[in-house]
Amino acid sequence: MFTEPVDFFVGNSYGKYLWRDTKIPMVRIGYPLFDRHHLHRYATLGYQGGLNLLNWVVNTLLDEMDRNSNITGVTDISFDLIR
């Protein structure tokens, strides 16, 4: 991940060290999840699990796009609360 960056990665609580070193967005799924409150209670299998997974991935990517839009000066992406 240091030589060939990816858009995001999926991992458990131990992945946060990789996230800190690489600054690549992380979606927390799996076991153990020590660093998030009650995330283990959300379904990860079946229809509801698929919706949860989609929600986590999209929100992680939107957070990263929002974070980068202020730094890089991208003008075609706006994450203002009021448009």
SSE topology sketch:
Elements: E1 9-11, H1 16-22, E2 26-28, H2 46-72
Parallel strand pairs: 1-2
Report on the architecture of this protein.
With 83 residues, this protein is mainly α. The chain has a domain at 9-66: 3-Layer(aba) Sandwich (Rossmann fold). It is built from two helices and two strands. The protein has helices at 16-22, 46-72; strands at 9-11, 26-28. The protein has a two-stranded parallel sheet. One of its GO terms (molecular function) is oxidoreductase activity. This is Nitrogenase/oxidoreductase component 1 domain-containing protein. Pfam families: Oxidored_nitro.
Summarize the structure.
The chain has a domain at 9-66: 3-Layer(aba) Sandwich (Rossmann fold). The chain is built from two helices and two strands; from the N terminus they run βαβα.
**Run of helices and strands:** EHEH
CATH architecture of the domain at 9-66: 3-Layer(aba) Sandwich
Residue runs with pLDDT of under 50 for 5 or more positions = none
Helical segment tally?
2
Mean pLDDT: 80
N-C termini distance: 36 Å
**Class by helix and strand content?**
mainly alpha
Helix content: 40-55%
How many E strands? 2
CATH superfamily of the domain at 9-66: Nitrogenase molybdenum iron protein domain
Radius of gyration: 15 Å
Shape: globular
Largest sheet: 2 strands, parallel
Class of the domain at 9-66, according to the CATH hierarchy?
Alpha Beta
Determine the strand fraction and express it as a percent band.
Answer: 5-15%
Instruction: Quote the CATH topology of the domain at 9-66.
Output: Rossmann fold
Strand order of the largest sheet: 1-2
